[in-house]
Each structure stands twice: as C-alpha cells, then as structure tokens.
C-alpha cells in the first residue's frame, strides 16, 4: 500500500532531539548499520540508538578516526567501508553477512556536499557516487540480512537541496560541465528516489524505506565550503559563530532519521520523504524550500534510477541470477 505524502501529526517537531523521539522505545536485540556514524549527525544517531539498546555497526572510511569517536559508547563496533569503492562495499557486506546477523535498521547517513569536481571509480562524479551509488550497492549487497527479519527499515538521508534539480538524465556524470551544487542536488534527489523504489520493492517482505531531510546544521559536511560563502549565505558570522537561528543542533538534526528508523507511528508505512520528525508535505516546483518536490517522488523516475544504478554497480538484489 502506498503511503500518502502528508503529515501524520507525530507529536514531534523541528526542535525535537534523537533522544526525544526514542523516549520509551527499547531497541535491545536490534542491529543498526549507520554509515558515517562517527561524525556530525551520524555520531549523534549512533549515540542515540546505542542508548536505546541497539547494537550499532559503524562502517567507516577512516576507521581509526571512527574508533576514537565512538570510544566509550556501549554496543558500537566499527568496520572498514569506502562508499566510493565498490570493492570496499562488497568486502564490508561479505564480512557482515558471514556473521549471520540480521539487520533491523540501515541509515544511509554518510555523504559529501558541494565538493570540487572529483572522479571516483570508473569516472563517476563523486557526490552521486558516494551519496547514492555506494549506498545503493551497500543495501543491495546487505539485502539477505535486511530482508531476513521481515521488519527492517532503511533510511536514506537526503536534503532540502533535492529541490535544486532532478536527475540529469542527459548528463548524470557531469561530463559536460561541473556545478558542485547541481551535483549535490542531483545526489540528494537520488536519495529520495532510491528510498521510494526500495520501499516499493521490499514492502512485500516487510522492509520499509524512508528518505529524510535532517534540516540545516553546522557539521563537518560543510568542510568544502569557504568561510566567505557561509557568511554570505547568513549561516555564520565573521567570527565563525552560528548566525542563522533556524539551524538545528546536531542532536536535533539526527532526530528525523532516528524517528523514521524507529517510530511505531510509521508501522505499515514507507516510501515517503520526512522532515522535522514527520512525513513532509508535497512542495510546489517553484516555491520556497520545504516539503518534497515532485521530481523526487515520481515512481517512474525512481524505477529508472534503480535500473541505471543496477547497471552502473552490477548489483540488484531483486533480479534473480538463476
């Protein structure tokens, strides 16, 4: 059943924290995989899930840094994963599957934003590759463990920046001129479409998927942005201090992805885009930021992106190899 793209009155909001949405929820015996779970919103997500009793696996490109960041958090383990390297994705998935454990929660949290033009793998544009293709391959390779329990949730961390552009079907790789914000917008649209398609494919075995906009938060995600650009945008002042009162704390920013991954209110639902700890409303194509644009929720676009991603990565858990 398709879930309507409309608010459900969750009782939470923009200032709710990850601990707020987990109040009264016991995740003991549950296993969560949180990419980038050692920095920024990912670290707050890891902490909150672990406090609720979950066993949290943090696959990390910088393993030593991840181990240092999560030191002292009970129930957290770190493994190697570079989302820009499909061999690394395959290696992590094989190691996890060999453990025989089921996965109850996957949060595709890791990402890069507005970086200089960078090529990875066979010439892929880095933001599309890391933010979307790496996570696409990861979930498909982990699918046996995700599907086995019959009740898992997969959360793709998108952004309000999906409003910048849909998928540039005529030049997905930005081979004819690179724009860092267009590339970021495309990758964030891909996150929304991925969740919509995964939900459609996985719901028959009880797996539901969601995409989320965490809000605006100062985290290491802005590492590629010069200070002058952030000052001009009104995000920070000349001293580097937060200047925009609409920005969230990391604890608040982690709340929507944690809510989507655990809320009992979302039982039987999926495939929708969430913000401020609720399902978001549809947005007009020319209006202000907020809500979700039609180009990111179109099921035909979602199916087309899935087919493209399967071709690029060589993996599709929903296609029989026999």
Report on the structure:
There is one protein chain. With 322 residues, this protein is α/β, with parallel strands linked by helices. The chain has one domain (18-313): NAD(P)-binding Rossmann-like Domain (Rossmann fold). The protein contains eleven helices and ten strands. An eight-stranded mixed beta sheet has the order 3-2-1-4-7-8-9-10, sandwiched between helices. Strand 9 (273-275) and strand 10 form a beta hairpin. The model has no long low-confidence stretch (mean pLDDT 92).
Strand order of the largest sheet: 3-2-1-4-7-8-9-10
Biggest beta sheet summary = 8 strands, mixed
- The tally of domains stands at 1
Give the C-level CATH assignment.
Alpha Beta
Q: Tell me the number of strands.
A: 10
CATH superfamily: NAD(P)-binding Rossmann-like Domain
* Helix-strand pattern: HEHEHEHEEEHHEHEHHHEEH
Q: Which CATH-level-2 architecture?
A: 3-Layer(aba) Sandwich
Task: Kindly report the oligomeric state of this protein.
Answer: single chain
The poorly predicted ranges are none
Distance between the termini: 29 Å
Would you tell me which CATH topology applies?
A: Rossmann fold
What is the helix tally?
A: 11
Structural class: alpha/beta
Rg (C-alpha, Å): 18 Å
**What level of helicity do the residues show?**
25-40%
Shape: globular
Q: In what range is the share of β-strand residues?
A: 5-15%
Mean pLDDT, all residues: 92
């Amino acid at each position: 059943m398709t879930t309507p793209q409309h608010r459900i009155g969750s009782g939470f909001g923009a200032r709710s924290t990850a601990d707020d949405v987990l109040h009264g929820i016991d995740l003991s015996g549950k296993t969560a995989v949180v990419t980038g779970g050692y920095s920024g919103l990912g670290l707050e997500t890891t902490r909150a899930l672990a406090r609720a009793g979950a066993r949290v696996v943090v696959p990390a490109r910088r393993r030593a840094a991840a181990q240092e960041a999560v030191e002292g958090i009970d129930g957290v383990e770190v493994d190697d994963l570079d989302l820009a390297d499909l061999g690394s994705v395959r290696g992590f998935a094989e190691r996890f599957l060999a453990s025989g454990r089921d996965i109850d929660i996957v949060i595709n949290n890791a990402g890069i934003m507005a970086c200089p033009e960078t090529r990875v793998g066979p010439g892929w544009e880095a933001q599309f590759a890391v933010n979307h293709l790496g996570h696409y391959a990861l979930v498909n390779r982990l699918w046996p463990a995700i599907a086995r329990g019959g009740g898992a949730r997969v959360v793709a961390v998108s952004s309000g920046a999906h409003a910048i552009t849909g998928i540039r079907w005529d030049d997905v790789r930005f081979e004819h001129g690179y724009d860092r914000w267009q590339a970021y917008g495309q990758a964030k649209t891909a996150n929304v479409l991925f969740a919509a398609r995964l939900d459609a494919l996985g719901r028959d075995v009880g797996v539901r998927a969601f995409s989320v906009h965490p809000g605006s938060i100062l985290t290491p995600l802005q590492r590629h942005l010069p200070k002058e650009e952030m000052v001009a945008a009104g995000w920070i002042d000349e001293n580097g201090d937060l200047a925009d009162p609409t920005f969230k704390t990391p604890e608040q920013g982690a709340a929507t992805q944690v809510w989507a991954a655990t809320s009992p209110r979302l039982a039987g639902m999926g495939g929708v885009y969430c913000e401020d700890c609720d399902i978001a409303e549809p947005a007009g194509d020319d209006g202000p930021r907020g809500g979700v644009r039609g180009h990111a929720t179109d099921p035909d676009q979602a199916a087309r992106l899935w087919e493209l991603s399967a071709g690029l990565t060589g993996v599709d858990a929903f296609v029989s190899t026999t």
